[in-house]
Design a protein that fits this description.
The chain is an alpha/beta fold and 412 residues long. The protein has helices spanning 19-33, 73-86, 94-98, 101-113, 125-136, 151-160, 172-186, 211-220, 243-247, 275-284, 286-289, 296-310, 312-331, 353-365, 395-408, and strands spanning 50-53, 56-60, 118-122, 142-146, 163-167, 194-199, 224-228, 255-259, 269-273, 345-351, 368-369, 372-373, 383-388. The mean pLDDT is 93. The structure holds pyridoxal-5'-phosphate (PLP).
Length: 412
Amino acid sequence: MDVREPRDSRGGPSWPPNSFDAALQSDLNEIRESGLFRTLRTVTSAQGPLITIDGKEYLNFCSNDYLGLANHPQLKEAARTAIETFGVGAGASRLVCGNLQPYDDLELAIAEFKHKEAAIVFSSGYAANLGVITALVGEGDVVIIDKLCHASIIDGCRQSGATLRVYPHLNVSKLEALLRQAAESRITTHNSRLLVITETVFSMDGDVAPLREIVSLKETYGAWLMIDEAHGTGVFGVNGRGAAEQFGVEDRVEITLGTLSKAIGCMGGYVAGSRTLIDYLRNKARGLIYSTALPPSICAAAAVAVEIVMSEEGRKRREVLWRNLDQIGKLMTREGGDDRQPSPILPCIIGDEKAAVEVSHQLFERGVYVPAIRYPTVARGKARLRITVTAAHRDEHIVRLSNELNAAWKRD
Ligand SMILES: *Cc1c(COP(=O)(O)O)cnc(C)c1O
């Protein structure tokens, strides 16, 4: 019998040649036909307002490097020094021998920055959300989230086994109804936990959660609150601590989560809160226990970035960022009305997936890189350009964006 050609009892091939790829290909064709096919572009330069792709320079309006720290000389120097001392890989999980000194320094810096007793760092914001949610709630508990919460929050909730309740985006009266319902049923389920989770600045819409209302509701109903400051950290609040600082509610939030990969310019996720919370996570968060520690160089660079965010230089960078946002606001009228609080994330809702891809493509042809964000990242029919502005952009970049956008996107 020819081993290269397995045969079933009827003598034909037991399955069509390469049926594995054929099965996947048919899914991919569906994705392609709906205008949802994704590919990667390779960037051959460092992050900045101008990046190089295929040997050509593009104006970059899609990075989350809000303060322009990802390529900052002091961060690079810190990473180089750490490599000299500690090498490249951490070698093991932090709970084994991977907990190199830069981790401790970074966690101290984050706790100080966030005005919390302690902080703990995960290998990404995604891992932090999965780790903290699955550690805090499980079967028999209830977790309530905003409809537009990030995939990592949704995945954490699903994986936790807790009952998941979702309220319409920013709708605090629906949140209250869900809280009331959960609090009532809790009377019969002894010791069950009730957790509310929201982003502070929503990653794809750039709008800001009504934190004061949410905080007072969770207090009324005896729930815990977790906020994801992925896009708030470094950007919002006089000291850049996030939207919770701006709303004056920092001390009333049990769990503050964020990422080191956006305004901090590095990589990693963190949770800040009470010492008890952090001890608890160190013992319970699987993503922390069963995953190798971050490279020491990235921890060292992130610690320097946190120091910069807290410093006079950080304040100045925030000032430039907000000035840039003012400037862009004057040049472009924004989707969703202009009464909402501004943020560095500016969605231009186009709706149709293929149309959004086409406008993004037109912009790219004109040397401006603004991605089209489509399902499943956002709802079907809500495809959009997602423009992000940073402190590193200059006036001429913003003027050019506005001109090219007007040329590429004919609104009717
Ligand atoms: C980006 C993001 C994350 C994930 O952070 P990474 O460090 O990129 O893994 C989590 N939550 C929100 C709201 C985000 O926007």
